[in-house]
Amino acid sequence: MERDEEQTQSSEWPWPVEAETGRRARVLVAEDQPEMRALLHRALKRRGYEVVEASDGPGLVQAIIDGLLAEQTLVPDLIITDVRMPGYSGLEVVARLRREGWKTPVILITAFGDAQLHQEAELLGAARVLDKPFAMEDLCGAAEALVPPVR
């Protein structure tokens, strides 16, 4: 019990999931283009990730909430999101997560990656911004550098 109490007092939001030997890392992919979302899903799954999908900004937020409310907390280890999506932009979601104290790494993908967007993403704490079109190998390499597929 002492360990649990100590962990509760020192843990930051979001509450960390206990390290589980052999647990696949969970990636939340938010992309409004179905073909691109399916491509990302397949590539990440082949690399050994568990993949959860969202088709827009509200879906991304709902997937996070659903993970927190699940019987066994299922927060994502990594979020990959398009910048321009219906509802909320990827930048808005990153800003909100950081305001709430979340440190989950976020990779932003965009077809509109000018210098201003890259600077804003960096200031908000995005781990990486990839400009479309990008090589799937680059995305998977960035994901593996941030969060190995098996934890």
TrEMBL record:
GO BP, sorted A to Z: phosphorelay signal transduction system
PROSITE patterns linked to this entry: RESPONSE_REGULATORY (PS50110)
Record domain Response regulatory: where: 26-147
Membrane spanning residue stretches: none
SMART domains for the chain: REC (SM00448)
SUPFAM superfamilies found in the cross-reference section: CheY-like
Protein name: Response regulator
Organism: Myxococcus stipitatus (strain DSM 14675 / JCM 12634 / Mx s8)
Lineage: Bacteria, Pseudomonadati, Myxococcota, Myxococcia, Myxococcales
